[in-house]
């Protein structure tokens, strides 16, 4: 049975592998710069692991720089390719929300590629509301991509 726990240095290589496949193969994230294991932040990063196998991870950090944004956090939830569709996203999201609430976070933001319908549906099902659309915010794979912002007040 998969267990959610704080990420450790030993998890960083697996986290980078999950993230880098998404960077290389999708417009889910607009970056093209792959992540090195040494660059994975451990603060507010959790993994869902089945034994030694990392199935997915979450990150949480202030939405923008500056003290006014300290209680509004942007979240990332990524699952390994074979781990999608079985409820593991919920196993990552629910405790992330609870920990954020306990830390005094007021709201969570999910930034999604405009065409990422499965992610949008996931967040809407779990109480997020769409609060913004930035047309053609990102350039990747020779095309412009919209950015959707979804928010959940805790």
UniProtKB/TrEMBL annotation:
Keywords in alphabetical order: Acyltransferase, Transferase
Top-level taxon in the UniProt lineage: Bacteria
GO molecular function: acyltransferase activity, transferring groups other than amino-acyl groups
PROSITE patterns assigned to the protein according to its UniProt record, in alphabetical order: GNAT
Residue ranges of domain N-acetyltransferase in the record: 2-154
Pfam families, per the entry: Acetyltransf_1
Cross-referenced PANTHER family: N-ACETYLTRANSFERASE, UPF0039 PROTEIN C11D3.02C
Name of the protein in its database record: GNAT family N-acetyltransferase
Protein's organism: Algicella marina
């Amino acid at each position: 049975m998969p267990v959610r726990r704080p990420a450790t240095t030993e998890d960083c290589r697996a986290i980078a592998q999950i993230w880098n496949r998404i960077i290389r193969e999708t417009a889910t994230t607009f970056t093209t710069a792959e992540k090195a294991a040494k660059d994975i932040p451990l603060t507010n990063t959790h993994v869902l692991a089945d034994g030694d196998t990392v199935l997915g991870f979450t990150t949480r950090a202030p939405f923008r720089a500056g003290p006014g944004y300290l209680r509004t956090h942007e979240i990332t939830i990524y699952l390994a390719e074979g781990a999608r569709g079985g409820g593991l996203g919920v196993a990552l999201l629910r405790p992330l929300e609870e920990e954020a609430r306990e830390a005094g976070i007021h709201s969570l933001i999910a930034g999604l590629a405009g065409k990422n319908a499965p992610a949008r549906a996931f967040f809407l099902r779990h109480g997020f509301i769409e609060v913004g659309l930035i047309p053609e915010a990102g350039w990747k794979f020779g095309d412009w991509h919209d950015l959707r912002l979804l928010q959940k007040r805790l």
